[in-house]
Amino acid sequence: MSDHPGSQATLVETDPAEVPLRRNRNFQLLWSGSAFAFLGKEITDLVYPLVVLAVTGSPAWAGAFGGVQMFVSLLVGLPAGALADSKDRRLLLITMETVRALAAGSVLVAALLDRITLPHLLVVAVAIGAVQPLGGSARMLLVRAVVPPKQLTAALTQEEVRSHSAALAGPPLGGLLYSAAVVLPFAATAISFLVSLVCALFVRPPQRTKPAQSTVDGSALSRVLTGVALLWKVPMLRHSTLFAAVLNTVSAPLILIVIVILGREGVSPAMVGLTMAALAVGGLAGTLLVRPLHRNLSPGALMLWLGGTAVVLIGALSLPFGAWWMAAALFLLGLGGPSMRVLVDILIFRQVPDEQRGRTVTAFMTILGAGAALGMVSSGLLLQYLSAPIAILTLSAVLAIALSFTIADRRIRAARWPEEPTAD
Questions:
Q1: Total-model pTM
Q2: H helices then E strands: how many in the chain?
Q3: pLDDT tens digits for 218-268?
Q4: At the N or C end, where does the chain have fewer CB atoms within 10 A?
Q5: CA atoms of 50 and 182, how far apart (whole Å)
Q6: Which of 185, 52, 183 is nearest to 122 (CA)?
Q7: What DSSP letter does each residue of 277-294 carry, written as one string?
Q8: How far apart (Å, rounded) are the C-alpha atoms in residues 394 and 62?
Q9: Per the UniProt record, which residue ranges are transmembrane (predicted)?
Q10: 154: number of CA atoms within 13 Å, CB side?
């Protein structure tokens, strides 16, 4: 491969047979396993803070669980990419699901014995945060390995269907199970991670040829930072990553701000839940738009369109028209999410050689995670000193500024979808 950024490589990729995705055994195993795993993750994202709150009575400690998990994921993100490029990706995925199943199982046993403690839960948060970027990048790269290039957009779209379906079903299911018995959500999540583990055990991806020595030489730090360097070197990747990070920064705290607004208006918890679900429903519906949008718009035009609509819709959340108005705005905002994520995935897979994709993917995920963390911290400060509608307008203005810089770049406006790389 000679048209990629970075060092030359002798890696030769053998594309799997172009059978329909529904008959692609490896893809269906990965998809089915990840569907169960994502459902389990969505359940625990709701239940773990509830358990911490029940054990400590402290909202601060309940929030600390997610904070610890996010911090460890950010810390491990870049080194995890180097491992995904140098180690067996299937083994890394198996490791993640094993750790997550053991973590959920340990809390299940503690709940059965009525011995749940805060130190135990914080250790679980560290373990989950440490393996999440490792297995997450490995799963994405395995999907690329078992899917022919022409089917990649369709495969990534199905991945979006899975994640949004889990986001829609997981929290209500977790709340229902937790209300029935504390042990039930942890039993369900342990089983879901075990199912994903079993699916990963049966995946047989094409064998990878080792990269040329020039791609792996250098200090450990330089190898870890390779993904960041690649994202910065390629103009379209640089701008799409920065724009996606800003979009993540302003969208991550929206749920919290909307909850604050609806709470002050005396909206019932049930209606608050329905309003929040609108974002996931929009994301699920948005998977139907991925193919036509990617077919009819260039990457630059698509990014500008999604960014412009997001500025308007985020600003619309500040209008005092009640819960149904907010639900409609969140639904419309969710429609663009899948197309934006698939856009960046496609750009990475088509412009970065396989032996550097792990570091590039985890670099991208780490930057987005840092943006989300910054957004959550900033939103707390905005809500402390400003009214919620002004806080929303501030976030919309930040995104508008980022969009204006993007529009001003001629290279982004003129960008075209890169060709799928071919083997030498």
A1: 0.68
A2: 18, 0
A3: 555 566 677 777 777 777 777 778 888 888 888 877 776 777 777 777 777
A4: C
A5: 10
A6: 52
A7: HHHHHHHHHHGGGHHHHH
A8: 28
A9: 91-113, 176-203, 242-263, 269-290, 302-319, 325-349, 361-382, 388-408
A10: 14
